[in-house]
Amino acid sequence: MIYWDHAATTPPFDEVVDTMSEVMKKHYANPSALHRSGEAAAKLLRRAREVCAASLDVLPSELVFTSGATEGNNMAIKGSAMQYSSRGRHIITTGTEHPSVYECCKQLESLGWEVTYLPVDAAGVIDLDVLKEAVRKDTVLVSIMHVNNESGAIQPLADIGRIVKEVNSRTLFHVDGVQGFGKLPVTISEWQADLYSLSAHKFNGPRGMGVLYVKQGVQLFPLISGGSQENGLRAGTENVAGAVAMSKAMRLSQERQPELYARMMELRELLFQGIRKIPGLVLNSNELDAPHIIHFSYPGLRPEVMVHALEEMGMLISTKSACSSKLSEPSRVLLAMGKSMEVASSGIRISLGKEHQLGDAARFVEVLANACSKLRPIIEREGN
Ligand code: PLP
Description:
- By secondary structure, this protein is of the alpha/beta class.
- It has two domains: about 130 residues, Alpha-Beta Complex (Aspartate Aminotransferase, domain 1); about 240 residues, Aspartate Aminotransferase, domain 2, CATH 3.40.640.
- Helix content is about 45%, strand content about 15%.
- It is built from twelve helices and twelve strands.
- The strands form three sheets. Strands 2-8-7-6-5-3-4 form a seven-stranded mixed β-sheet, sandwiched between helices. A three-stranded antiparallel β-sheet has the order 9-10-12. It has a two-stranded parallel ribbon with strand order 1-11.
- The structure holds pyridoxal-5'-phosphate (PLP).
- The site of pyridoxal-5'-phosphate has 15 residues, from helix 3.
- Pyridoxal-5'-phosphate (PLP) binds next to helix 3.
- This is Cysteine desulfurase.
- Keywords: Iron, Iron-sulfur, Metal-binding, Pyridoxal phosphate.
- One of its GO terms (molecular function) is metal ion binding.
- Its cofactor is pyridoxal 5'-phosphate.
- Belongs to the class-V pyridoxal-phosphate-dependent aminotransferase family. NifS/IscS subfamily.
């Protein structure tokens, strides 16, 4: 079996599994406890925060440990909306965000907030002039992702940050960084981002662990009340083993990012060449996208049929994103990119990871070509 679903989740580094189990066994004490075991756990937590901060080039005090990016995105969006509602009740985002951003915005709309959903072009990228026009005096937050989880489209974050701050220096800029970290360079200060969320399991770290960067001086209304952990922003006993394991994965991913990027670019080129030659397939990703996400459609075929056909042939792939792959609706992301209903309803995603070698591309293309020729009669039958 070859696993081609790294945008859904990644296998943890061996070091991450070892660290997790070691810390769980040896340092199970509550880091808030006053005894020496508690202090040892608190020290590990402090160290983990320092390692994560160094990987992101930010201050340790600017990081909040979370359970993942769904929580981080909720904390960033609802937390800033509630904190700064006296500045206005307007938010800007795009129509192609992950549900953990999109649904937060929808929920705020139902509470009376105004949300502008910026359109994207055929490549999935926003228009900077439209953004400039959209930012207002009462815009509290702009939330735009780094890399799209379905199409791989990369948003021009440095330009976005510059424009947002030029038009309204008080507007906060949040970046959902989940699909970019470890794959592309991350430059939070250059982007002028105030908030940046990550999920550890997307960069070979543990599941159920994430981190939210909150720029010094930015206040968030806490969504979870209770103890004073995480600067009062996230009450609840900390996941020490998860934090230490995540810090390890962050450091390793950050160190290996340039090498991984170079290998993925080569792999993607081979995959693009192969996919383009298969009759009936429509490639939705392009050379400007992040190299680890490749999206294509087989119009006329329900994508789950392709998932199961490829699974039988030893390849694990996905339809749309993991969070919405059980829904049979067309992809909101592809529709926003102007794709037809047919293309948006037959999307298939493969996503690359550190385990892939160049030879895997040829194997995948061969299997895919076989699957397509076997499935073609189904499309023709159903089309008639
Ligand atoms: N944002 C993006 C772009 C994602 O791809 C995902 C997960 O697929 C998330 C947020 C949510 O991450 P998690 O499910 O780990 O909370």
